[in-house]
TrEMBL record:
GO terms for cellular component: ATAC complex; nucleus; SAGA complex. It is found in: Nucleus. InterPro entries: SGF29 (IPR037802), SGF29_tudor-like_dom (IPR010750), Tudor_SGF29_rpt1 (IPR047288), Tudor_SGF29_rpt2 (IPR047287). Keywords: Coiled coil, Nucleus, Transcription, Transcription regulation. This is SAGA-associated factor 29 isoform X2. The keyword Nucleotide-binding does not apply. Residues 145-286 form the SGF29 C-terminal domain. PANTHER family: SAGA-ASSOCIATED FACTOR 29.
Length: 289
């Protein structure tokens, strides 16, 4: 949906108000939950002291109430996260509109690096329900074969350089032509200001969500996996080896980049965010395990 500047501002404000109310509701629900949990703890202490369960129905009721508290809190948190994602979508839509209108803001390289880091750190975290598997484009989970990246999405793009060499670069989708099966993408590096028209096999969408290592470790690349990773402080992807996995939702991968200047053939361990670690592809754009 296209928003004018005033409409976008109004929509964002409305969602911020709703988010504010939800945060207060979450706080109130958490306090109620803590009250019931304290009651359960006291009931167990009494049972231990008396060495008998009495009255049993009371303990069962307390546990039932605690479960209901947790479910209400989960529902409120999910609603709050939905509002956050809606705000992100509106802001991204306005940015795309400005770019299409020729008002693309020039970003200095230092600011660009900070923006890319922030984008990775604030990428939505997948929080599934018990037994629910992480979806495509969450962490290392590949996209579905029919998936088409949307305008504004970040991708890795295989492009030719000035000397005809091919490199995977960080780019942003401008459009997709369903008739030709080709993407139009912009190099994210402001110094290049290049636009490329590429086939689908030369474009790899970046993850849309982070995987939580504590609950969805299978959505991460295993140790010693060969991957493509964004070299720190650059906008290019290079072949690398996963040396260590993130142990929490806020941590990064530790990777070893191919580097013949070192005796081992690899660089020292370097941190790379989940968003910028992708399945390895060859120069023709074919994926490899």
């Amino acid at each position: 949906m296209a928003y004018s500047a005033d409409q976008a501002a109004f929509q964002v404000q409305e969602r911020l108000k709703a988010l504010y109310r939800l945060v207060h509701d979450i706080h109130d629900e958490r306090q109620q939950s803590e009250h019931n949990l304290n009651s359960i703890e006291k009931a167990h202490e009494k049972i231990s002291a008396e060495e008998r369960v009495s009255p049993q129905y009371q303990l069962k009721n307390l546990y039932t109430a605690a479960v209901a508290d947790a479910e209400r809190e989960e529902d409120l948190i999910r609603k709050a996260l939905t509002k956050v994602n809606e705000i992100r979508a509106i802001r991204n839509e306005r940015r795309i509109q400005a770019r299409n209108a020729g008002n693309k803001e020039t970003i200095r390289r230092g600011a660009l690096m900070k923006m890319l880091l922030s984008s990775a750190q604030t990428l939505p975290l997948w929080v599934g329900k018990p037994g629910e598997k992480a979806p495509p484009l969450c962490g290392a989970i590949p996209m579905e074969a029919s998936y088409i990246a949307k305008p504004g999405d970040m991708v890795a793009a295989l492009v030719k350089g000035a000397e005809e060499e091919e490199n995977w670069i960080l780019a942003e989708v401008v459009s997709y032509n369903g008739a030709t099966g080709r993407y139009e993408v912009d190099d994210i590096d402001e110094e290049q200001k290049d636009r490329h028209v590429l086939s689908r096999r030369r474009v790899m969408p970046l993850p849309l969500m982070r995987a939580n290592p504590e609950t969805d470790h299978t959505a991460l690349f295993p140790k010693n996996s060969v991957v493509m990773a964004l070299y720190p402080q650059t906008t290019c992807f290079y072949k690398a080896l996963v040396n260590a996995l993130p142990s929490s939702a806020t941590e990064e991968y530790e990777v070893l980049f191919d580097d013949p200047s070192y005796a081992e053939g690899y660089s020292p361990p370097l941190p790379v965010a989940q968003r910028y670690v992708l399945a390895i592809r060859d120069r023709k754009g074919h994926s490899h395990s």
